[in-house]
Amino acid sequence: MSQTAFRSLFPCFSTKDRFPVYLDSAASTQLPQSVIDAQVNYCRAGHANVNRSGHTLARQATDKFNKARQLVAAHIGAQAEQLIWTSGTTDAINTVASGLTHLLTADDEIWTTELEHHANLVTWQQLAATTGASLRYIPVLENGDLDIAYFEAQLSKRCKLVAIAHVSNTTGAINPVARVARLAQQFGAKVLVDGAQAVAHLKVDVNQLDCDYYVFSGHKMYGPTGIGALYGKPAALDALQPSKFGGEMISKVSLSGSEWNQLPYRLEAGTPNIIGALGMGAAAQFLADIEFSERHRHERQLLSYALQQLATHPEVELLAKPMLQTSVIAFRLRDIHPQDAATLLDQQGIALRCGHHCAMPLSAKLSDVGSLRISFGLYNEPADVDALMQAIDHCVELLGDD
Amino acid sequence: MTKLLQLDLDAIEQRFSDCRAWEERYRQLLLLAKGLGKADPALRQEAHLIDGCESDVWLSFEQQQLQLDSNAKIIRGLLVMLLACLDSYPLSQAQSEFAALLTRLGLAQHLSESRNNGLQGIWQALHAIAQGDEQTFCR
């Protein structure tokens, strides 16, 4: 499939109004027609609650809902019953954190890294505060990669959990999560991988990664917002105590007590986001329908072109040079505050992110005033990079004259 | 209290009146930014910091003297406008006049709450200092 063909699958790029040069897919991706259709068609055709009523419409809704679970599970190489619907990555991480509270004591260590999104950092700070466990960080090296050697040297059987991003949302660095999982599991620790920034760009196979939990969001893989998933190995999901109660998570209720339903329902309290799940299922199908090598080649070419253009621009400073990187680039313009740059780039129709990208500890390490971040989706083309470079020149010209 | 700035609102509007393209508006705004003077290290301290995700704004009010600063030039330009509004109106009215001014000058995007740029925090801080006395920052 050609570049233009990818773009043509997303209706927002053919609207009459001028659509921006969209370089903010790490914040949220655009929706292809098939994902929009899956949700709209379901609403039009008639909706019913799932897993409850036995009438025909309800059974049809349940079938579609189950099919979506299969599709999303298959996207990361998992089985449907290993996949819990959540409202997103943050919700999934919180489900694991509160679910594991009962297993942690003041003697234990929780490990995460300095490059995490706040969702995969603050949640563990809270869990450490609640349980008395120590929170430790895998440091970030100068180039943006993790100091795995430090982790390896410090790791002991005190470590009960490691929470690590598959891909950094700030620098696009691809972390060696399989290696981290192997190291941690030698000491019996559980491993959670935050895959929010990976699932749209890498071929993810949870069996090969061998992590205990893998969490991700619909809206960063061409699906809708408000839906995400928590994958877990059976024993890892069994270990989680439910933190929300009600609805299909219950199997039997009496006034003296209740019993929980089996997985995955036990961790899905209340009526699920059915429309969102169908959208996320359609997004997984959308990605499965395109040969991975084709997607990968397109994104690699785009990344190399952007890196080369940015690296050779005299006013651009790249803030990280990780060994392996995907679809995200952090940079600054020399002597220009990122917010000033972002404002003038926005005026020129460039949509990118400015600030600390919800990863303040890493951001502070890279630059004292935050950074600019561009990130790609399938719909981006080299022309978008050209437009960015032109807009940067104009921006430097306006801001750099004193 | 002494007048905060040389430029009054009319003079600011005048500067923007001939601007056609967005570039010209922002050139004017960047010129205005210079009116805020040099960065004062005594002001740029943690204690004076107003949180904003994208840029920092510092505010102090000591001996009836209001000082504002930012590390982003465009925000500095907007601060000059904000001070000019405070110069001409009581606090609450200054806030709405500031919003009206930005809208008239084609800079309304800076009022959006999706840009956590520190501007919203300034008004909150000013109201907190004034404690209901709308004339606190008036001449």
Question: How would you describe this structure to a colleague?
Answer:
The complex is a heterodimer of chains A (402) and B (139). By secondary structure, chain A is α/β, with parallel strands linked by helices. Chain A folds into two domains: 3-29 and 291-399, Aspartate Aminotransferase, domain 1 (Alpha-Beta Complex); 35-288, Aspartate Aminotransferase, domain 2. Helix content of chain A is 39%, strand content 16%. Chain A has 14 helices and 15 strands. Chain A has helices spanning 3-8, 33-45, 56-75, 89-100, 122-131, 148-154, 177-186, 206-209, 234-238, 274-288, 292-311, 338-347, 360-366, 382-399, and strands at 21-22, 83-86, 109-113, 134-138, 159-165, 190-194, 213-217, 228-232, 250-254, 257-260, 316-318, 328-333, 350-351, 353-355, 371-375. In chain A, the strands form four sheets. A seven-stranded mixed sheet of chain A has the order 2-8-7-6-5-3-4, sandwiched between helices. Chain A has a four-stranded antiparallel sheet with strand order 11-12-15-14, with helices on one face. In chain A, strands 1-13 form a two-stranded parallel ribbon. In chain A, helix 11 (292-311) packs parallel to helix 14. Chain A is globular, with a radius of gyration of 22 Å. Chain A starts with a helix and ends with a helix. The N and C termini of chain B lie close together (5 Å). Chain B has a single domain (9-130), classed as Alpha-Beta Complex (Sufe protein. Chain: A), CATH 3.90.1010.10. In chain B, a hairpin with a 2-residue loop joins strand 2 and strand 3. With 139 residues, chain B is mainly alpha-helical. Chain B has helices spanning 9-17, 22-33, 73-88, 91-104, 119-130, and strands at residues 49-50, 57-62, 65-70. Chain B has five helices and three strands; from the N terminus they run ααβββααα. The interface between A and B is medium-sized, with 18 and 19 residues.
Helix and strand layout, with pairings?
The complex is a heterodimer of chains A (402) and B (139).
Chain A: H1 3-8, E1 21-22, H2 33-45, H3 56-75, E2 83-86, H4 89-100, E3 109-113, H5 122-131, E4 134-138, H6 148-154, E5 159-165, H7 177-186, E6 190-194, H8 206-209, E7 213-217, E8 228-232, H9 234-238, E9 250-254, E10 257-260, H10 274-288, H11 292-311, E11 316-318, E12 328-333, H12 338-347, E13 350-351, E14 353-355, H13 360-366, E15 371-375, H14 382-399
Parallel strand pairs in A: 1-13, 3-4, 3-5, 5-6, 6-7
Antiparallel strand pairs in A: 2-8, 7-8, 9-10, 11-12, 12-15, 14-15
Chain B: H1 9-17, H2 22-33, E1 49-50, E2 57-62, E3 65-70, H3 73-88, H4 91-104, H5 119-130
Antiparallel strand pairs in B: 1-2, 2-3
Helix pairs in contact in B: 2-3, 3-4
